[in-house]
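Figure 3 (text version): C-alpha cells given as input.
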C-alpha cells in the first residue's frame, strides 16, 4: 500500500507559485528540497522561471507607487505577465515599499537600454529639480543615474543641467549661447560639432561636415576682444578652416559672421561679413 503523502501536491504548487524557490518551499513545508524538486517536476509544476528583466524593473520602479496608490496593481501585474504578489516582492527588493530600503534601481543603471533610459530622462528633464534633488526625491542612485544618462544622451546632458542651474552668471549665459549654437549647427547639417572643454582655446566650437571646417567663437553680443579675434583668425587660416563668430544679440535669433581680417583694436569696425553655415 503506497505511503500517504504528508504534504499535498496542491500545497506544494501553491507554495512554489508564491515563493518561486524550491528550497524556500522545502523550508516552509518541512520536507527535503530534493523531494520538493522531484514532486514538482513529476506533476509538471516546476517550469523554468522567467527572469525579471532590467526593462521590467524600470517599469516597476517607474510605475509601482502610482498604481499602488490607485489600487490598480492587478492591472500592472497583468501588463507584465506576473502576479501581484510577485510584483510586491520585487518592489520590496527594489526599496519601493520602505523608506529605509536600498535606493531604487541602483544596481541596474549599467547597461540600461536606451528606450528605458529615455523614460527616466524625460521625467528628469520636465522637472525643475537639480539632478541631486530629483534623484533624492525619487529614491534612486544619483551616480548611476548620471552616468547612464550621460552615456545615452551626451548631447543633451550638460545643456539640461545648465538650464536647471538658477545661478545667473556670465559663464552660465555664455554656456547657454554655446549650446544653442551647437544644436543649430547640427540642425544645419554639421554631423560633428564639438565643444572645447570649459571653453579653453581659440574656439568654443569646432563644426565639421564634408569639405568644411568651422572654428566658432560664441559671443552673445557679437563682440570679441582683439587678442581672441586674431588668434582665432590665424588658427583657422593655418588649417584651412573658416573662422566664425556666432551669437544672439536680440536673445532669440542666432546670427553668424565670418572673420575676414585681423582686428587692430580701438574703435575700428570688426572686419567681418555675414555668414550662412
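Below: residues designed for each position.
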Amino acid at each position: 500500500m503506497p505511503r500517504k503523502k504528508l504534504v499535498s501536491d496542491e500545497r506544494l504548487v501553491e507554495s512554489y507559485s508564491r515563493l518561486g524557490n524550491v528550497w524556500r518551499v522545502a523550508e516552509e513545508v518541512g520536507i527535503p528540497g530534493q523531494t520538493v524538486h522531484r514532486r514538482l517536476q513529476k506533476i509538471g509544476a516546476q517550469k523554468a522561471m522567467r527572469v525579471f528583466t532590467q526593462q521590467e524593473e524600470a517599469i516597476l520602479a517607474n510605475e509601482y507607487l502610482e498604481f499602488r496608490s490607485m489600487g490598480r496593481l492587478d492591472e500592472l501585474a497583468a501588463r507584465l505577465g506576473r502576479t501581484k504578489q510577485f510584483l510586491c516582492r520585487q518592489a520590496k527588493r527594489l526599496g519601493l515599499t520602505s523608506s529605509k530600503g536600498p535606493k531604487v534601481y541602483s544596481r541596474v543603471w549599467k547597461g540600461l537600454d536606451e528606450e528605458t533610459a529615455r523614460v527616466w530622462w524625460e521625467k528628469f528633464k520636465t522637472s525643475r529639480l537639480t539632478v541631486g534633488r530629483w534623484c533624492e526625491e525619487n529614491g534612486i542612485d544619483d551616480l548611476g543615474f548620471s552616468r547612464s544618462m550621460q552615456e545615452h544622451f551626451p548631447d543633451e546632458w550638460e545643456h539640461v543641467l545648465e538650464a536647471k542651474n538658477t545661478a545667473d552668471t556670465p559663464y552660465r549665459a555664455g554656456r547657454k549661447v554655446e549650446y544653442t549654437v551647437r544644436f543649430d549647427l547640427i540642425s544645419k547639417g554639421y554631423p560633428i560639432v564639438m565643444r572645447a572643454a570649459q571653453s579653453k582655446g581659440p574656439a568654443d566650437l569646432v563644426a565639421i561636415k564634408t569639405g568644411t571646417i568651422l572654428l566658432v567663437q560664441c559671443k552673445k553680443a557679437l563682440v570679441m576682444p582683439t587678442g581672441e579675434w586674431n588668434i582665432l583668425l590665424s588658427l583657422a587660416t593655418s588649417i584651412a578652416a573658416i573662422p566664425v563668430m556666432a551669437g544672439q544679440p536680440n536673445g532669440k535669433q542666432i546670427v553668424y559672421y565670418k572673420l575676414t581680417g585681423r582686428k587692430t583694436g580701438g574703435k575700428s569696425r570688426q572686419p567681418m561679413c555675414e555668414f550662412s553655415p
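Residues 170-187 form the longest helix (18 residues).
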